[in-house]
Design a protein that fits this description.
Elements (H helix, E strand, L loop, with lengths): L3 E6 L5 H8 L7 E6 L1 H9 L5 E5 H6 L4 E11 L7 E5 L10 E5 L4 H14 L4 E5 L3 H7 L2 E5 H14 L4 E4 H9 L3 E9 L4 H22 L2 H12 L3 H10 E2 L4 H16 L18
Length: about 280
């Protein structure tokens, strides 16, 4: 069997999980494939990746074909540093009938925004999907959804240039609405009956968990790498990593099910998803 192909979201928020691998502190007998969340989602669902972080909402849409790797996720408890921002020319509650631009690079956050519009803000808007460029998005609409590094850079630009926009942290809005944290991504593996494949997945899982532990113990080095990549001020980067969590505990499971419940109520998934985790219930 050929080497496993492992997805790596090419955003700062994945650095703590992959830093040790990138720096050669750990070795992994697998090929790392970098890309934006939507790109990795596509590769995984096409069968071109064996293990990957995947947008949480995509797991709900394909529960029959994948399992969640335990102890790994990307989540925030309220304000996310920011991970997911909505920038608008008017307060969110005043956007009735207006056009809103959605980033094409994310899936979970798109559903999060739609759920909040439906059930929290009670505002009906017109959505359009496009590349994550704040200037272009705001030229075409009255609001823009940005995620990951794009959100960080846009937030800094709004502050530095004193742009006349309202900025809403969607993780914070979700916490205000539901009282739950927001789980943006899960690590998943394709289902397989192969014992050889299962052994390889166990090995990958253990390496990823070890890499996560090492990464979280080396946050200063990760912050330095993030500053070099983005040029963002130190306090912005420090806050960003301080607000992200990489565990998958009971609070994450509960929060995910609440999120899936609202996604189902908004007609964005076909059924309320159940969580099937690698190594549990005979998997």
């Amino acid at each position: 069997m050929s080497r496993l192909r492992i997805g790596q979201v090419d955003y700062l928020n994945c650095l703590p999980v992959y830093h040790a691998l990138e720096e050669g502190l750990l070795s992994l007998n697998a090929e790392l494939v970098k890309g934006a969340p939507a790109y990795l989602n596509k590769l995984f669902l096409q069968g071109d990746l064996d293990v990957t972080p995947i947008s949480s909402i995509e797991y709900a849409r394909y529960t029959d074909s994948c399992l969640i790797l335990p102890e790994l996720s990307i989540s925030t408890e309220g304000r996310g540093g920011p991970n997911t921002l909505f920038v608008s020319k008017l307060p969110v509650t005043e956007l009735e009938g207006r056009a809103v631009s959605l980033t094409e690079t994310s899936a979970t956050s798109v559903v999060l925004l739609k759920v909040l519009f439906d059930h929290y803000y009670h505002v009906d808007v017109q959505f359009e999907t496009m590349p994550p460029d704040i200037e272009h998005m705001m030229a075409r609409s009255d609001g823009a959804l940005l995620t990951g590094d794009d959100a960080l850079l846009a937030y800094q630009r709004v502050k530095e240039e004193h742009l006349p926009y309202h900025v809403t942290d969607l993780g914070e809005a979700w916490k205000e609405f539901t009282g739950e944290k927001m789980v943006y991504a899960l690590w998943v593996v394709r289902k397989s009956d192969s014992n050889d494949q299962s052994c390889k997945i166990d090995e990958v899982r253990n390496i990823l968990l070890k890499s996560k532990t090492m990464g979280l113990s080396q946050i200063p080095a990760i912050i330095a790498k993030a500053r070099e990549k983005t040029g963002l001020p130190l306090p912005v980067i420090e806050e960003y990593f301080a607000t992200n969590s990489y565990d998958f505990d009971e609070s994450c499971r509960r929060a995910l099910l609440v999120y899936y419940d609202y996604a189902y109520k908004s007609g964005l998934i076909d059924e309320r998803a159940k969580l099937h985790v690698w190594g549990e219930s005979g998997e």
